[in-house]
Amino acid sequence: MVVFRKNILLPFFVIVFIILAAIFEPIVGLLVIPLYFGIFIFFYFKRPKFISSSKYWKKIFKQKKYIQNVLITFALLLLAYFINYKIGLYVESTQGPALGDIVLDNLPPIDISFILLYVSRIVMNGVPIFIMFMRPTKATFSFKALAFLMILRSISLTLTELGLPEGRIPDEMMLGNVEIINFTKDLFFSGHVAYPFLGFLLLRKDKIVSYLLLASSIFMSFAVLAMHLHYTIDVVAAFFFTYGLYKMTAYVFKKDYALHTYSANLK
Fold first, then answer.
1. Of 118, 133, 130, 153, which is closest to residue 202 (Cα–Cα)?
2. CATH 3.30.1360 correct for 64-265
3. Number of neighbours of residue 156 by Cβ within 10 angstroms
4. Phi-psi group of 170: left, alpha or beta (phi > 0 → left; psi -120 to 50 → alpha; rest → beta)
5. What one-character DSSP code corresponds to residue 53?
């Protein structure tokens, strides 16, 4: 097997890392830059050997249908981000009613924003990088599922224009003045809970990673309630919507799902 030198591959992976960080994290903050770089370095040196094989990449680029599928996936993901951004701006401009919530009414606000920041950033940046570097054959289905989840959540937000929960601890505090895009009224359903749970569903064959993602999803559930960032219904609904979305994506993109399932045990 012909293997590229690491010093040749490293610039390529650095570029991929920067692109992923720009796509999956619309902020620039000194606190999270070391986190990004740490995640990148870990997965770079733990990547499977076949990713460094010239034969592997030649085989990939000869498959025109696969390349087309990758481009479609990327376009769908960009579309989902655009829709999510526009809907987020719209929802921020609305004035919806606040809901009664028996859980929040009996739970005093607790500021755990620093922990929430790092857990959410590890999930949002770590999972895509893990899939790209460690399980690249799962990428098309995984990113299509992510795109569908973002679109579904955007639709849900337009149908449920809710006011902020009483006693909400502003999440702007998490990053001070470095926040560029910060939506506060994207309530139903909770993205904090949905995204790590989707990661769990996508990576169930990777036991340690999947259990960590499930644990982070459960932690997010308690964290967003403790900070009064979401209503209880936002948290509970996130699990059901995400699971249904995962199954729907598997039905719509059967070939991608077949590759996703087949590659589950590839290391």
1. 130
2. no
3. 18
4. beta
5. B
Higher pLDDT, 85 or 244: 244
The alpha carbons of the chain give a radius of gyration, in whole angstroms, of 19
Indicate the domain borders of the chain.
64-265
With 60 as the cut, is the pLDDT of residue 263 above it?
Answer: no
Question: 146-160 pLDDT, tens per residue?
Answer: 999 999 999 998 988
Assigned token pair, 66: 């696969």
What proportion of the chain, given as a percentage, has pLDDT over 70? 70
Cβ atoms within 10 Å, residue 187: 25
> Nearest-CA neighbor of 194 among 254, 132, 141, 123?
123
Helix, strand, coil percentages in the chain from 3-state DSSP, rounded to 5:
70, 0, 25
Three-class secondary structure of residue 3 per DSSP: strand
Q: For tokens 């094989």, what's the residue?
A: 53
For residue 82, say if its preceding peptide bond is cis, omega within 30 degrees of 0.
no
> Is 56 exposed, middle or buried (CB count within 10 Å of its CB: 0-12, 13-18, 19+)?
middle
C-alpha dihedral over 20, 142, 64, 2, to 10 degrees? 70
Nearest-angstrom CA–CA distance, 82 and 86:
6
Would you say how long the chain is, in residues? 267
